[in-house]
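--- STAGE predict ---
source: upstream dedup step, 1 unique chain passed
mode: sequence only
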Amino acid sequence: MEELTVLNNGRLSIAVSAHGAELCSLKMGEKEYLWQADPAYWKRHSPVLFPIVGSVWENRYRVEGKEFQMSQHGFARDMDFSLGSQSDEEVWFTLQHSAATLEKYPFPFRLDIGYRLEGNAVKVMWRVTNESLDKQDLSLPFQIGAHPAFYFPDYATEPSRRGFFSFGKEKQLHYILIAEKGCVDAETLYTLPLDAEGMLPLDVHTFDHDALILEDSQVSEVTLHDVHRSPVLRLRFPSAPLVGLWSPPGKNAPFVCIEPWYGRCDRAGFEGDFKEKDWMQLLSPGETFEGGYWIDVLELPHPTNREVQGKEPGQ
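--- STAGE serialize ---
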């Protein structure tokens, strides 16, 4: 049976697996917010995407003329991390480069993933370090992203309504779509169909064309609301330049994903060098990148925790 690390601060509890350093549970009281990985719909909870987000064209990429293969979303989500530090409200896991990773990703790296409980929020923390000892080496090119799945608050197979997204913005928003072989048409922009209150209605057809990808730091938060427009949870990602919104097309799944990304899949047909990919992050030898996001639970706390009502998440 999979061994999980559990944290509980009296308001929220989370469980994290060393396999992929994946968040596997997020509860307030007995209510579970994180999708529980039924393979009939999708077999994961909240995988971390590294060293790519999405797909590279034809599952191949090139580094200085040499070709490598990489499957969708990279390899970190399918590897065992080592447990680093742990306290009552924070835990860290580490993945170090190895002979196996260097065969498919020829760069020395260290990936640290942390989770911290902050009131009614979970802070998810990522650190990527270029472990090259040769200062003449090329920079470490990488992407990293989140893929957490959350239960629709009012899921029922009928009617088709699922709730709403809001974005903390009143301006018009645009998205791009997957075109072929898991890669995007980056030139065609679609307008996000917000209603009069600035919300995106969610129903069984919202993701018929796969993920909705918002680029260029258009938004820095996404809130999931129930069918009555009451807020349930919010993701905040102040430094991530992209966010993907997704539920499995055509499956009428009980969950939706809100995915802050530092990178995305290739443009359809891209065959340039890996470091020239859209939204590539580059680290000089010895440097460390820090990123991540917050998950705020916005519903009222469990009745036994009435004293925390009225406080802002994360405070």
